[in-house]
User: What shape does this take?
Amino acid sequence: MRHGVPSLGALQAFEATARLGTFSRAAEELSLTHSAVYRQVAGLEESLGVQLLTRVRRRIALTDAGAEYAARVRLHLEQLEKDTLSLMTRSAMGRSLHLAVLPTLATVWLMPILAEFGKVRPDITINLSIRTLPFQFADNPFDAAIYHAAQLWPRTQGIKLFDENDLVPVCTPATLATAQGQIANMVHLHMISRPDAWRMWYREQGLEHTPTAEAGPRYELFSLTLLAVRAGMGVGLIPRFLVESELQNGSLVTAHDGTLAGREAYFFSYPVDNENMEALVAFRDWIKRKLGLPAKS
Assistant: This one.
């Protein structure tokens, strides 16, 4: 073992044996001999100082520790396989960029403009993964991220895309009519990540924040809150830019003229080590032009 990590061969032999139930079947899958697989697994147990399998004649069974370890090893081997295939695919396809994005922002803002980038740079593939919480780039396979925060994440560089600006209380026209135009009569939809948003909105309007306003359902994502709003389930506080088109076409309306000022912004950032990555630089500069940001911002 190196730094406490068993050899890949030993882990593969153990995982295959645990999954298939016999050394012989594991040997066949791995194109090894029965004795080679047996030695790998026995050596793994010796190096760990933990019994992973029990052997009774030709039958084997996992110990509790072995079953738990096998499941964990399987996950890591599967991830290693995925990472390897991803690397091979990217190599075959040319330059690529793996972005972590917020789900609602990706759906409403990013996806509609990615097709345009694809026409400008057809040689660059943009891969998207959803992340709703901050993370360390060192622990994740992302080249860059688009996220909502007060400032750039530590140990990264990048650009502010745009301010969140104001959040507006929106609902369907039918919801507004049923509530007789009174927001207090509506079910209030809440964001789990912004538990005080409605309380702050009421305070800024100089209105009483009643227990009824706190009683509505809570959702993790703006996209879920928007779906609930569109389904007529209540009124939600949503960033205006996410619902601007629906407000213009009348499918949604504001339930009150009051707004809640957004205190954060959306950023595109990446590890300092990635600053010269060709695909990243191309995408960053294109986004700047798209948003009318200064070239050196």
The first strand starts at residue 53 and ends at 56. The chain has ten helices and 13 strands. The first helix runs from residue 8 to 20.
